[in-house]
Amino acid sequence: MAEHFKQDSVTAVAVRIDAEHPHGVVFDPHQPQLRVTDLGAVRGDGVFETMYALQGHVRKVDAHLQRLRRSSTITEIGIPPEESWRAAVELGLEEFRVRGQLPEHLSIRLTATRGVDGEPASDDPQFAGTYWALFTQVSETMLENRAKPISVTLLDRGYDAGAAERAPWLLLSAKTLSYAVNMSALRWAKNHGFDDVIFTTSDGQILEAPTSTVLVLKKEADGPRLITPVLETGILPGTSQGAIFAAAEEAGWKLGYGPLTPEDLYDADHVWLCSSIRLATPVARIGDHELAVDEGYTAQLISFLEQDKPVNHPV
Ligand code: PLP
User: Fold this and answer.
1) How many CB atoms neighbour CB 297 within 10 A?
2) Atom 4 in ligand 1: which residue has the minimum CA distance?
3) 126: which DSSP letter?
4) What strand order describes the sheet that includes 12-18?
5) Predicted local confidence at residue 100, as pLDDT
6) Right CATH number for 7-138 from 3.40.50.10490, 3.30.470.10, 1.20.1740.10, 3.40.50.80?
7) Where in the chain do CATH 3.30.470.10 domains reside?
8) What is the pTM of this model?
9) Which amino acid residue places its CA nearest to atom 12 of ligand 1?
10) How far apart are CA 78 and CA 61, in angstroms?
């Protein structure tokens, strides 16, 4: 263990994967690592996943690795095989244990970039780019805020519901590193007095939030129905939504997939934004429309996530 790790009170660990270290090697995330010519930095040309580990148990690993593979196929960025990522995750967790402090709440971010233009890191396309896993403690602010009701604004994402199918080069459903637009929308929302954003298509369909999936609950005569937008519009297939749906179905709840309009959200009994780290955050207001918040249902969704069911998306 390097000296700087012992002195490092910031609980961050990083693991690199390359052809020489197909099962990963620990490096210091506080030291420079990435070449300035890496296309991940130059063009945002890469893909990533963010996973949540509670007490060292990483949730929905299979679903995240499947989605990473899917993003890599869409972007044609070669990535190491699944066993490399699994080994890297284990190595990172072990590094925390060796340091004697495995944080209770960890964010594990897997990143793969296209690497340095014209200089593949290996002849093997599975290792030609740049790959790492970054483990950081989930902030206190996130932990305190994630179940607190929020206000959101609807923002036009600037393309219609058919764009994903018509224009696959837009990479709409891949989880790429190019999140500048998503972050800009969040800043816009905050500057206008909202906590978060729900994107719509230019023809008025509900998409997703900049870092979360939209989940709607309708109370029907024979029980609750959970509804989420269709994936055909190019939104990210959410692993949290998928895990919630899997557990809810077993609990006898009904499920549904949009298309959803803003009116569907205003008329819903409850709306949440879901993601791996935030879990299920209730939405109390969309623009000028107040929504009811129910702590019992929020707790139920969070307990569905605790079951960590395999995710099965309809596409
Ligand atoms: N949609 C977008 C655009 C995201 O970035 C994310 C997660 O970061 C999600 C949805 C939620 O995905 P998951 O539940 O797999 O974390």
Assistant:
1) 19
2) 211
3) G
4) 21-27, 12-18, 130-137, 105-113, 46-54, 57-58
5) 85
6) 3.30.470.10
7) 7-138
8) 0.95
9) 238
10) 19
- Ligand 1 centre distance from Cα of residue 238 (Å): 5
H-helix or E-strand spanning residue 87: helix 82-98
What DSSP assignment string belongs to 243-297?
Answer: HHHHHHHHTT-EEEE----HHHHHTSSEEEEEETTTEEEEEEEETTEE----HHH
Residue 313 has a pLDDT of: 78
How far does residue 275's CA lie from ligand 1's centre (Å)?
A: 5
CB 71 within 8 A of CB 78: no
Structure tokens, 62:
């299979």
Architecture of domain 144-306: Alpha-Beta Barrel (3.20)
148-163 confidence digits (pLDDT tens): 999 999 999 999 999 9
- Tens of pLDDT, residue by residue over 90-114, are 999 999 999 988 999 999 999 999 9
